[in-house]
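protien #1 (seq + structre)
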Amino acid sequence: HVQLVESGRGSVQGGGSLRLSCAASGSTYSMNCMGWFRQAPGKEREGVAAIDSDGSTSYTDSVKGRFTISKDYAKNTLYLQMNGLKPEDTGMYYCAADRFRGSRYRRVSGDFEYWGQGTQVTVS
């Protein structure tokens, strides 16, 4: 079993930056794909970014060039560096993990086995 805990919530003005973290514990050695999702009020959940254990990444078009997903394997922590934030980036951000690779497929489908509780990002 894997536990995921997000941190880094905040409120920023447009153009600002935030870094989200997702600390993983448990059987993390078996997690070969991790990702970030977001959900704004009244909208469907959206896959923002995902990363495979081989370093392959996938981003939704609206964040390309602004967001960067990365993983520190020594700390078992997933990050999402968000620059150039826009009001439309506002939402609850969730971390997810799965035993199998497939960053693009899992980001688009949301097919992840483990999920965190979420952390709020507000851009005004």
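ok now protien #2
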Amino acid sequence: VQLQASGGGLVQAGDSLRLSCAASGRTLSDLSWGWFRQAPGKGREFVSAFRRNGGYTYYADSVRGRFSIHRDIAKKMVYLQMDSLKPEDTAVYYCTAGNRLILSTIRSASAYDYWGQGTLVTVSS
């Protein structure tokens, strides 16, 4: 599975961005999907996920109500819509996918099998 993330950029606080992840090599419905981020000097942090079984979505507390994850199976795309952006959202955002994710592991980066290269989001105050 190859993943290509895009859509990052420099925005002001309160603005919106939509990140895109183009997937190839597998059918989207065969996998669970996630977005993680890594701010300068910090570890990789869970942002959001879409679990294959049941179609449940999950969000970090810091982004719930502002971010939403979507997938378009026909286009083989996964999106992260980010609204009301804050300076603390500044990070490199990574698209990821996994074969066997369950409720207890879906927020753990080590549970995912495939990673994209990351796209930088910078939010100015």
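The chain is about 0% helix and 50% strand.
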